[in-house]
């Protein structure tokens, strides 16, 4: 998709554009008029075929009339159906399996007999330009079809509805000068790359016996193929390639494609760190690590990066796509998508089995997520860990999922490195031309087990018996080049000796190698750093606005262009906003958020918000996009601001894929506030892998800082389990080593400040915010204009809204989020004068120092209560319990432990009955304020 959209409607007739309505409802749906024999489907109309054959016969000096013309037309019709069948199904008879174990009988419809031509090889038929033939014998035509569609490359492309795309692939495949052809020098370069791949694995196996390396053994043809992507991509304008891949062959790609120094990898094999000792971090196994480098082909330099990944095999996919999108934005490449190319390398079992693969395909043509096409390379080992394909998928190929977005698929025999390289060359050309995803399915094998210590013959004895006697790719290819006269007997051995000597030299150098710098604050990250101190680094950040900017943003947010007809309810919303700015009072959550977004854009930052229904907001609160009620034109007020860029996208209905995409975007661009919003907080469950493996641990494992913000609607209003809890407890359980920030904020101004703080500090940490639902319009959850300007800033704890003298306080109720207002309203109704309610707005890093200072000011304090809406086994209780005790101790209240007031333990996050919810809510508030024990409706030990 070269632009921001792509239409998949079928194209019928001679017209190039999509036709309205379903194909079966149109009278001409069988008569797709195609030029140059694209498959002459007009042949389905006997009259058209007779005319075509008669004209061709006349031009060729053939005398055809009457029955002869009728028969010639029928012969041409059947010949064209033969051609079409090969174009659709020829891949089923292609020579793809290097081991020859896959039973691939020629389907009947790919035989001459299946089309009524048995014994008629010498019959001459008219085919209108197919393979350059006008008139051709059936035998010649059949031979050309078999050679083209049933060789070492099998092409699936007839599921694509776009006529231009089919023609493009067909022309490249069927035209002799476009098919697999390389110069002698090109063939030598391919052989050299294959040998590097093989000898590298052999060297590692010899030097590090039994050590896991997840070698590429059996799939070495991928090395020259990926180099072809760099070379031909560079010629077409690619200046940056972003790779993502799992374990298989990763170390080989790092060394022989990414040019990571061999000595560095050997150093890691010997137990050394990938980073200097003083950097810190936990590190990760070597086959999870990434790198970045530059390589030059034909005088064109291409920057490449391999994104680090966890053992969740395909989880890195959306991260790569998000990073690619960000780099395209940075390079001003979002219209053509020429300069930045995402490449994803998959295993066959994972490609077929992991749902995230489809989620990424689903993103491929969506506005805001389109990267102009991703090149997918499947290392098809024809086996998972120990699982055979028939148990690993329900489709013939692992790549069948790609048909859902009409991506073309090139199946190729991994024992033919020229064929694999050709496939990559064609793939990059297709992607450059049409801006769409394409898949290369390289059939190969895994010479050893899942890892080098595994015994695969336990479960696949026949396959591994064949593998044991199967010659290596370099042997097959060098023999072929020897036979062609491209190389002599000593050429391959010379390459092997030369490369092995280099590896030995680097092996010795690895013993004294010491990494001298980490690579995490270069490029666009220059000027940012790791916070020197987790506590003080978060203070004194100037996030307030000047009055002039504040007023200017108010006008932007409330001015409706004359040519936009907005919804009447939105008109009332904007009237209320104008009143806020006129009076300086009553600013709600959405307005505080918009002020944060607008001010950052005005200061030159980017702001990107995505999620399900984020434009309007799940709760009709945001209205970042105004829709004209007459013609549905869109107007985005914040996008009219100068200096920075504001983007808001309603995402596809995906959590895993979209959150991974936004993490990747934030990884590449620390100068954009990147936010992902869940429709309801608990929906983040669908993206738990991204949260656990990337957001919470990516910095400590891989030294990859990230400033992504998660907005997770949270609050108990009796709407059932999934619409109540964002699973706060899960995020708190992940907190350690100053890795993320977790907030549960209660005022629009504090939300405004935390968003601005996220960008204005000299470091980046992921930020998780439990955003409200009912508080979006709660009369107490408002802020005044003075809280956004002057010397205001984010408050990690918020004092009581009611002024109570510190010396009067006997009971201190600590809480976070919406329950604070329930507590305040009930406390004031009961006339309690010795109860203070303090909100913990930031739960991690826990504000122990300011909390201790607050407690110290209460000389007569007798009891500290932690109140929460969530069940006792959920929420923040088990996280804050000892931290509150430590703060009390620091305040001179030794031995004062908080007690709990909240719901009883529960397997479900919340009840689905509004009446039961209300009883529980009233009970936990009652307990927290010391008015009663709450009975069975809630749990408390604060009496």
Taking all Cα atoms into account, the compactness measure Rg is: 33 Å
* CATH architecture annotation name of the largest domain: 3-Layer(aba) Sandwich
Name of the CATH first level of the largest domain: Alpha Beta
Helix content: 25-40%
Number of strands: 25
- Biggest sheet layout: 8 strands, mixed
CATH superfamily membership of the largest domain, which one?
Thiamin diphosphate (ThDP)-binding fold, Pyr/PP domains
Tally of alpha and pi helices: 28
Strand content: 5-15%
SS class? alpha/beta
* Oligomerization: single chain
Are there runs of 5+ residues with pLDDT below 50, and where? 1-43
CATH T-level topology of the largest domain: Rossmann fold
What is the total number of structural domains? Answer: 4
End-to-end Cα distance, whole Å, is: 65 Å
Broad shape: elongated
Strand order of the largest sheet: 3-9-10-8-7-4-6-5
Report the average pLDDT across residues. 90
GO molecular function: oxoglutarate dehydrogenase (succinyl-transferring) activity
Domain Transketolase-like pyrimidine-binding: 587-778
Pfam families: E1_dh, OxoGdeHyase_C, Transket_pyr
Keywords: Oxidoreductase, Thiamine pyrophosphate
């Amino acid at each position: 998709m070269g632009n921001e959209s792509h239409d998949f409607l079928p194209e019928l007739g001679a017209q190039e554009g999509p036709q309205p309505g379903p194909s079966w409802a149109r009278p001409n749906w069988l008569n797709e008029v195609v030029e140059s024999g694209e498959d002459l489907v007009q042949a389905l109309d006997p009259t058209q075929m007779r005319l075509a054959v008669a004209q061709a016969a006349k031009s060729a000096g053939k005398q055809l009339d009457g029955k002869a013309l009728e028969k010639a037309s029928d012969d041409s019709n059947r010949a064209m159906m033969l051609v079409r069948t090969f174009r659709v199904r020829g891949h089923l008879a292609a020579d793809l399996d290097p081991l020859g174990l896959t039973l691939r009988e020629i389907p009947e419809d790919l035989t001459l007999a299946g089309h009524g031509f048995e014994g008629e090889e010498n019959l001459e038929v008219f085919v209108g330009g197919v393979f350059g033939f006008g008139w051709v014998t059936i035998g010649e035509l059949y031979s050309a079809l078999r050679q083209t569609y049933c060789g070492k490359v099998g092409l699936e492309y007839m599921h694509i509805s776009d006529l231009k795309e089919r023609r493009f692939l067909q022309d490249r495949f069927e035209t002799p000068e476009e098919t697999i052809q390389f110069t002698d020098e090109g063939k030598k370069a391919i052989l050299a790359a294959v040998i590097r791949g093989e000898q590298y694995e052999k060297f590692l196996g010899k030097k590090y016996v039994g050590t896991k390396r997840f070698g590429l053994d059996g799939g070495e043809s991928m090395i020259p193929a990926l180099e072809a992507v760099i070379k031909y991509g560079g010629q077409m304008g690619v200046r940056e390639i972003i790779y993502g891949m799992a374990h298989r062959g990763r170390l080989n790609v790092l060394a022989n494609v990414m040019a990571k120094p061999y000595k560095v990898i050997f150093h890691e094999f010997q137990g050394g760190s990938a980073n200097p000792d003083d950097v810190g971090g936990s590190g990760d196994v070597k086959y999870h690590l990434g790198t970045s480098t530059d390589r030059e082909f034909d005088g064109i330099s291409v920057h490449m990066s391999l994104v680090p990944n966890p053992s969740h095999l395909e989880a890195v996919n959306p991260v790569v796509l998000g990073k690619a999108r960000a780099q395209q934005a940075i390079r001003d490449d979002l219209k053509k998508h020429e300069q930045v190319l995402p490449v994803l390398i998959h295993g066959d079992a994972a490609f077929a089995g992991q749902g995230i693969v489809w989620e990424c395909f689903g993103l491929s043509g969506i506005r805001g997520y389109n990267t102009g096409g991703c090149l997918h390379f499947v290392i098809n080992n024809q086996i998972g860990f120990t699982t055979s394909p028939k148990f690993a998928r329900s489709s013939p190929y692992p790549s069948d999922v790609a048909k859902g977005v009409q991506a073309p698929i090139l199946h190729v025999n991994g024992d033919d490195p020229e064929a694999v390289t050709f496939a990559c060359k064609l793939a990059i050309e297709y992607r450059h031309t049409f801006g769409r995803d394409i898949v290369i399915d390289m059939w190969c094998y895994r010479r050893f087990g899942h890892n080098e210590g595994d015994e695969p013959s336990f479960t696949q004895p026949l396959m591994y018996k064949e593998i044991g006697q199967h010659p290596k790719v370099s042997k097959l290819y060098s023999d072929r080049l020897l036979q062609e006269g491209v190389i002599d007997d000593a050429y391959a051995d010379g390459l092997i000796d030369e490369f092995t000597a280099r590896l030995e030299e680097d092996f010795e150098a690895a013993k004294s190698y010491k990494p001298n710098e980490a690579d995490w604050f270069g490029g666009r990250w220059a000027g940012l750093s790791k916070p020197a101190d987790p506590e003080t680094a978060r203070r004194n950040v100037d996030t307030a606005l000047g009055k002039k900017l504040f007023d200017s943003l108010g006008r932007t947010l409330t001015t409706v262009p004359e040519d936009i007809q907005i919804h009447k309810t939105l008109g009332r919303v904007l009237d209320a906003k104008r009143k806020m700015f006129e009076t300086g009072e009553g600013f709600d959550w959405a307005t505080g958020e918009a002020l944060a977004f607008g001010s950052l854009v005005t200061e030159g930052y980017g702001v990107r918000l995505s999620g399900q229904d984020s434009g309007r907001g799940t709760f009709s609160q945001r209205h970042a996009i105004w829709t004209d009620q007459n013609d549905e034109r869109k107007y985005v007020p914040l996008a009219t601001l100068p200096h920075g860029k504001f983007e808001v996208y309603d995402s596809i209905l995906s959590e895993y894929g979209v959150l991974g995409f936004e993490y990747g975007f934030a990884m590449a661009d620390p100068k954009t506030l990147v936010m992902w919003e869940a429709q309801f907080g608990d929906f983040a469950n669908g993206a738990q892998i991204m949260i656990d493996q990337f957001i919470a641990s990516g910095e400590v494992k891989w030294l990859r800082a990230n400033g992504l913000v998660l907005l997770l609607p949270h609050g108990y209003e009796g709407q059932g389990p999934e619409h109540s809890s964002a699973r706060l407890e899960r995020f708190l359980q992940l907190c350690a080593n100053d890795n993320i920030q977790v907030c549960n904020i209660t005022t629009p101004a504090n939300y405004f400040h935390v968003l601005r703080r996220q960008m204005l500090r000299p470091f980046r940490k992921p930020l998780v915010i439990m955003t409200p639902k009912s508080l979006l319009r709660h009369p107490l959850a408002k802020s005044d204009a003075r809280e956004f300007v002057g010397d205001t800033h984010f408050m990690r704890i918020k004092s009581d809204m009611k002024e109570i003298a510190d010396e009067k306080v006997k009971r201190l109720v600590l809480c976070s989020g919406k329950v604070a207002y329930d507590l305040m309203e009930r406390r004031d109704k009961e006339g309690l004068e010795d109860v203070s309610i303090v909100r913990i707005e930031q739960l991690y890093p826990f504000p122990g120092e300011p909390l201790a200072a607050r407690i110290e000011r209460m000389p007569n304090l007798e009891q500290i209560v932690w109140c929460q809406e969530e069940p006792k086994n959920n929420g923040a209780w088990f996280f804050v319990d000892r931290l509150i005790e430590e703060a009390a101790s620091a305040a001179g209240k030794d031995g004062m432990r908080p007690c709990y007031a909240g719901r009883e333990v529960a397997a479900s996050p919340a009840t689905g009955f509004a009446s039961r919810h209300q009883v529980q809510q009233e009970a936990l508030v009652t307990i927290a304020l010391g008015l009663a024990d709450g009975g069975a409706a809630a749990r408390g030990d604060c009496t």
